[in-house]
Amino acid sequence: MRVLIVEDHEELAQTVAVGLRREGMAVDVVLDGVAALDRTSVNHYDVVVLDRDLPGLHGDEVCRALAGSGHPARVLMLTAAGTIDDRVTGLGIGADDYLPKPFAFAELVARIRALTRRSGQALPTVLVHSDLRLDPATRIATRDGRRLPLSPKEFAVLELLMTAGGAVVSAEQLLERCWDEFADPFTQTVKVTVSRLRRKLGDPPLIETVPQAGYRL
């Protein structure tokens, strides 16, 4: 899952980003509305966590632009003003959810995950493939009842492969969805991560390499 945080309070933005990365998400951070539109024009995001009161280009305008462009990201709007009128306005301009400041980090995580479940086709709460089970909410993956000691990136790659339903996922797609903007597109990190994931999954092998295409379960 890839998330863009748009928040002009840099310390808050970085603190939230660190927490979300620990939850296995790929996170990019920008501090103003213009930069937000720049990032969303070139990157795929599942969720945009958008502060409403931004300098330069107001969060409302960013939200309207995303909704008007048909960008697939869900928008979770943040604001220090938590009145009913504010929430109605925010939802009316295209936001998918609304969270007043200050907020509990656990609630932010829960709302982000809830928004991704609304995107695209409905997925089961627990993903299952053969004897492999993955629960995105608890961040637990097991095979044949054995809990797998996965790193956040390994968990993210496995989750994306499982949600693909047997379709091939390219290395470029894995890099785009599971790593942030600082990932080197020419790196071997995807190949290395898949290799480590294979070892942890054990036998019989579950991840197939499709030459010149990518990976699939």
Spans where pLDDT lies below 50 across 5 or more residues: none
DSSP helical segment count? 8
Kindly provide the name of the CATH class of the largest domain: Alpha Beta
What's the helical proportion of residues? 40-55%
Largest pleated sheet: 5 strands, parallel
Rg over alpha carbons: 18 Å
Count the domains.
2
**Could you say what the CATH architecture of the largest domain is?**
3-Layer(aba) Sandwich
* Helix/sheet category: alpha/beta
Reported by name, the CATH topology of the largest domain is Rossmann fold
**CATH homologous superfamily descriptor of the largest domain:** Response regulator
Strand order of the largest sheet: 2-1-3-4-5
- The sequence of SSEs as H and E is EHEHEHEHEHEEEEHHHEE
Number of β-strand runs: 11
Average residue-wise pLDDT: 88
Question: Which word captures the global form?
Answer: elongated
Strand content: 15-25%
Distance between the termini: 18 Å
Description:
The chain is α/β, with parallel strands linked by helices and 217 residues long. The chain has two domains: 2-118, Rossmann fold (3-Layer(aba) Sandwich), CATH 3.40.50; 127-216, Arc Repressor Mutant, subunit A. Helix content is 41%, strand content 20%. It contains eight helices and eleven strands. The chain has helices spanning 10-22, 33-42, 59-69, 84-92, 105-118, 152-163, 171-178, 189-201; strands spanning 2-6, 26-30, 47-51, 74-79, 97-100, 127-129, 132-135, 140-143, 146-147, 208-210, 214-216. This is Transcriptional regulatory protein CutR. InterPro entries: CheY-like_superfamily, OmpR/PhoB-type_DNA-bd, Sig_transdc_resp-reg_receiver, WalR-like, WH-like_DNA-bd_sf. Residues 124-217 form the OmpR/PhoB-type domain.
